[in-house]
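Why show two proteins at once? Because comparison is the fastest way to build intuition. When a single record is shown, students tend to memorize it. When two are placed side by side, the eye starts asking what differs. So, the first record is below.
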Amino acid sequence: MINIEKIKETVELKIAGSDKFIVDINVSMDNKINIIVDSDSSGVNINDCADISRAVEDVLNRDDEDFEIEVASAGLSSPLKMLRQYQKNINKDIDIVFANGRKLTAKLVEAAADSIDVEYEEKIIAENKKRKQTITKNETIMLNDVKSVKAVVLFKN
């Protein structure tokens, strides 16, 4: 059986000293290894993925066990999975889908291991007013109440 800890140690050694970090490592029953890597700022390119793949292949023995390996960067539309991903998206817009089905787009203000603080605008009908008024709301959201969180990608002309 392929040892995930051995793979994790190998990848960590390969990316040590860079701003890259492991998001996820999975090994399926048929020995397909999936490694997802992200970066705090510089991004993860194809050469980074190839280097990580080669490093893992070097420590595993195909004579003992056949395997397939795939190394990828965390995509723009991938859900945020770990605190470091939340922290790199502070002051950026995120889409939140709650476990109860509620959806919210908000600016990520702060991130902790079990919660995030967000800020968003909401239109409400104020007393003695005919028109809706926009107010800024702040909310702390427990991550165990959330189904998924994704960074909002905006394309500017």
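Second record. Ask yourself what differs from the first in the token line.
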Amino acid sequence: MPDQADAVTFTAADRQFVLAIARRIVGDPDSADVAQDALLRAYRHRSQFRGDSGYRSWLFKIATSVSLSHLRRRKRHQSFAADTTGDEAETLATESKSPEELVAQAQEHRRLKHELAQLAPGYADVLRLRFEKDMTEEAVAKELGMTVSNVKIRAFRARRRLREAVAA
């Protein structure tokens, strides 16, 4: 029986499939670059294709992940650019989000909520109090009965774990 990694090939239909996903999610001329990155990632990780699901499902997951990562990087870049020049901030404020961006944002929000639920209670509690209730580190420490240093450490570790989970 051939190795599952040998089954990973990219036909013209596969390339079009990945490009279509990238266009739907990214929605701009960067789609071709995103599709290329997705195919490259699929090629590099072809040994991880176990055959548990269909080949197209595996490609879909990779293309979606790479496209969402691209959107996150672009959003960070735009935020940074908006902070540096006032004109860009006005431009970004007047632009409405496309349906694809709204879907991607909703998916990302659900994923973050899921990952937050997977955190150990001590870490999740710190993040919830800090960001949902907008409490200071001192107030969180008092609420949870721990030192401010522990609150800072737990918040750092929780954010790192969320970042790693989202990047995966």
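One difference worth noting in the second protein: The CA atoms of residues 68 and 104 lie 7 Å apart.
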